[in-house]
Amino acid sequence: MTDWRQARRGCAAAAMVVLAPLIFPALFSPLGFAYPSVFSICDAVAVAKILNATLIIPHLEVNPVWQDSSYGIAAISPFSHRLAFDNMPVEIQRLRCKVNFQALIFVPHVRALGDALVNRLRSPYGKGAAQFLQETTDSKDKQARKFVALHLRFDKDMAAHSACDFGGGKAEKLALAKYRQVIWQGRVLNSQFTDEELRNQGRCPLTPEEIGLLLAALGFDHNTRLYLASHKVYGGEARISSLRGLFPLMEDKKSLASADERAKIKGKASLLAAVDYYVSMHSDVFISASPGNMHNALVGHRTYENLKTIRPNMALLGQLFLNKSMGWSEFQDAVLEGHKNRQGQIRLRKPKQSIYTYPATDCMCQA
Predict the structure, then answer these.
(1) Would the pTM of this model clear 0.70, i.e. be above it?
(2) Taken in order 259, 261, 264, 270, is the CA torsion positive or negative?
(3) Domain boundaries, the chain
């Protein structure tokens, strides 16, 4: 197996000397978290380098997509994420890598809350809630537990836009179709396909039940501590009850944080996403129920840091879940076979793919 490492070390260290004049302390502190904005700033830094210009990095305070109630001092939306990924000078590519994976950091209070949640996730299971929440974030338990971060991207927008059938019957289909018409005026590509066609093509997001079965088939069990990174789950608590049944040690921001900590991030979707991202980056294993901005950002970041990430084989799983006569042993064998090469192995970037999702070989080199 080829060993890959960050380009700032080892074989490519000399190439990074080009970046030395650029000083990157904690110069970008997103109070909120908008993935396209982060990538746009990375590209803006690269353009500034190409033009030999001075760039003032904004202290990003608000995510305009989510309409957070916090206030900001910079608007970066006019700068689109359009800088090409191919045929760029090596030093520019590695500058983009350095900005995205090393220079851009969260504000202290996001890191502090994230560290607190990670510390609590790694604490022994038997502790009571009061003691659990009073632990300091800088102390490390000698018997720290491992945990899996699950990004459950299954909100109403995702369910409706996918045009998939999630087992809610005719009423649910009509409700999602109506919502789809209101939000996107019917301009949804998936609407022209049947549910079976969508699942065979891997276009349907995994439901909480399905992601639970996937994790179980991969060998995770009721002793696995699971962190649920999610905003609003379509169907609410009832929808994730089966997942919680399989993984009773499942936690989320609400269950881990104190009332005071929750109050600081309540109603601020981008802040909530920032905390989820931070905790997911510090997990032992990360898995997402469907592709998307957060999935892509975390896959790239964790690849760069050589952390284990499971990438669900969506087409295979869609086909397996359509087979209602398959037994558990057959299902598990198929899942294990279909995910042998999807559990953290480095994938080299192909033409036109983003270096922020596929950092090898632009940001990494062979050891």
Answers:
(1) yes
(2) negative
(3) 155-200
